[in-house]
Amino acid sequence: MLIAVEGMTFYAYHGYYPQEQIVGGRYTIDVYITLNNTQAAYTDNLNHTVNYEQILAICQQQMQTPKRLVETVAQQVLDEISGLSPQINHTKVRITKHYPPMNNLVEKIFIEIEKKGVKYCRFKK
């Protein structure tokens, strides 16, 4: 099953240049999670899936701390979201930076990063 949380919009102070960390800019985060949560579909229990509010809270927290590279923010968001549940098989995060300081010639750039979940095996003794 795919869970997507798209269009989370933030005003944040990330950027390589000092002026970017003073003036700030607009960012959008999209998160895509593939997981095995058939149990949630049958039980109607939020504890058997990933809560969208947790995803939003992680993104909000990471956007509050200025970083020089959007890649760093994306990696931290990815790592935290991937650790939410062992049911997660794959996570993808896209962070879009709107109107980067490139003489108004570029509307947006984005960083996309993904991670496949770790498969757990239990061995019988």
Q: What is the topology?
A:
Blueprint: E1 2-12, H1 18-23, E2 25-35, H2 38-43, H3 52-64, H4 70-82, E3 88-98, E4 108-116
Antiparallel strand pairs: 1-2, 2-3, 3-4
Helix pairs in contact: 3-4
Quick rundown:
The chain has 125 residues and is an alpha+beta fold.
What structural class do helix, strand and pairing data support?
A: alpha+beta
Helical proportion? 25-40%
Provide the CATH top-level class. Answer: Alpha Beta
In CATH terms, the superfamily is GTP cyclohydrolase I, C-terminal domain/NADPH-dependent 7-cyano-7-deazaguanine reductase, N-terminal domain
- Specify Rg, calculated over alpha carbons: 17 Å
Strand order of the largest sheet: 1-2-3-4
CATH architectural grouping:
2-Layer Sandwich
Q: In words, what does this structure look like?
A:
- The protein has helices spanning 18-23, 38-43, 52-64, 70-82; strands at 2-12, 25-35, 88-98, 108-116.
- Helix 3 (52-64) packs antiparallel against helix 4 (70-82).
- It has a single domain (2-116), classed as GTP Cyclohydrolase I, domain 2 (2-Layer Sandwich), CATH 3.30.1130.10.
- Residues 119-125 have low confidence and may be disordered.
- A four-stranded antiparallel β-sheet has the order 1-2-3-4.
- It is α+β, with helices and mostly antiparallel strands and 125 residues long.
What attributes does this structure have?
125 residues, alpha+beta, GTP Cyclohydrolase I, domain 2, 4-stranded antiparallel sheet
